[in-house]
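INTERNAL AUDIT FORM
Audit reference: QA-55
Scope: verify that the stored structure record matches its stored sequence.
Auditor: D.O.
Record contents follow.
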Amino acid sequence: MSRVSVTVTVAVSFLALFISLVTVSCDVIKLPSQASKFFRTTKHNDDGDSSAGTKWAVLVAGSSGYWNYRHQADVCHAYQLLRKGGLKEENIIVFMYDDIAKNKENPRPGIIINSPNGNDVYNGVPKDYTGDDVNVDNLFAVILANKTALKGGSGKVVDSGPDDHIFIYYSDHGGPGVLGMPTSPHLYANDLIDILKKKHASGTYKSLVFYLEACESGSIFEGLLPEGLNIYATTASNAEESSWGTYCPGDDSSPPKEYETCLGDLYSVSWMEDSDQHNLQTESLHQQYELVKKRTAGSNTSYGSHVMEFGDIGLSKEMLVLYMGTNPDNENYTFVDKNSLRPPSRVTNQRDADLVHFWDKYQKAPEGSARKAEAQKQVLEAMSHRLHIDNSFLMIGKLLFGISEGPLVLNKVRPSGKPLVDDWDCLKTLVRAYERHCGSLSQYGIKHMRSIANICNAGIQVEQMEEAAMQACPTIPAGPWSSLHRGFSA
């Protein structure tokens, strides 16, 4: 038999084998699990995933306090997702204050859930960096694999190589140009970008993906993250809007009645619930971005945020498996564009989630009980702090720029593509000047970071800011939200 005849015979036999393997469902040809693995041509690492290098992940919950339950729930859920996807525990580094699972307010001690009917996501999550070890310095040391700079914690770092893929997920409160931390100072956008540039310069990754949940999260990358670093970032909101909590008391998908807090964040649960269901070998970053954007935008005009993308957008064509692995149970869930999860009809502004918790606690507490009195006190303290912050900035603006011009200057938004501020050192200096006289900005007050940036951009010197803050705030309020015992925000 000639070589040509043998080749044809083999080809025909191979085609017959292929036809016998495939199944037809809903007018779409699908490969069974074993067949799809057979025809896969990409390289595999020792985890069996489509990748030439090791997968690394850094998961950060940047808050503390039971009213911020959702941030640690988000991060714990992300950990479980990555473990099911095949990432090794030693390659996943978790930052969370760890004051939720065993909190006296938690109706299920030792358990954290991320959705109303969700399973426990806390079990097995490593305690890499908890309590006051959740801080900016340790986060930067972990990303740069600088073990000598670490203080406390497990000592795990992103000890990656040039062929590796890194996934960073951060869930917390934010403000223009800043991300919250349970310790002081907060994380400022320019410092984060500098660390990412250093990581790139070290040649210790092939590509890096950053998912960010926070209010005004687009401002962290807007005009700051350049192309060419092999970094793709998506954010829950643009540079000037809130992100949203979900599964909150009173929402259309409320938590179990014994819970008095939001269980998750809309952007975060959107990408995780999508990843929980689908085959991430066949879903790209871009496909997930589109699905998450649609769900996070909301179903009406009363809420919603604009999910954004920054950096090397071309990386979004890559499959999610490169960064998150994939659950083998989802092998046949391929056609993701037809599986968008339904947007909720009601969610909670991130900045109001603490009030939702205190108010729900107040309503459910028995009349005359110590718990009801405590909840009432918490509501009043939070509202008093908000009024103090808002009024002090309004007064500072008027003192610096005049009664009519003050509000205009403080609320000015720079054109798209421009960073928040020209001089980040000025921003941090004026934050400290404000807090010296008016008290802590706290998780609510960082919404005014744009005002401080605009004061810097207008050329105001620190001495002028000190004088204005002194006049606006004769004393620092005594409430816990204004306390500076945790240090300055900058």
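Auditor finding: record pair retrieved intact. The chain has three domains: 3-39, 55-350, 378-482.
Action required: none
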